[in-house]
Model the fold of this input.
Amino acid sequence: MDLNYIRAGIFFIGGIVSIVFSKQISKMQKYFSKKLKVNYADGEKSMKIIGIMFLIISLGLFLYAYLY
Done:
């Protein structure tokens, strides 16, 4: 099996998870930033954008693995 299929699957799952569970991920990031004493001021919108970017990367990897 081509490694790009595996990579594309990982990015696809990461993208879907970051879009569907953006509230929970944001809550977890705020919790860990308090524990680590790091300033954090980010919202759910960025998680959805990251999820869309992951989906685009996975689509590119699927196409690359399929065509080459």
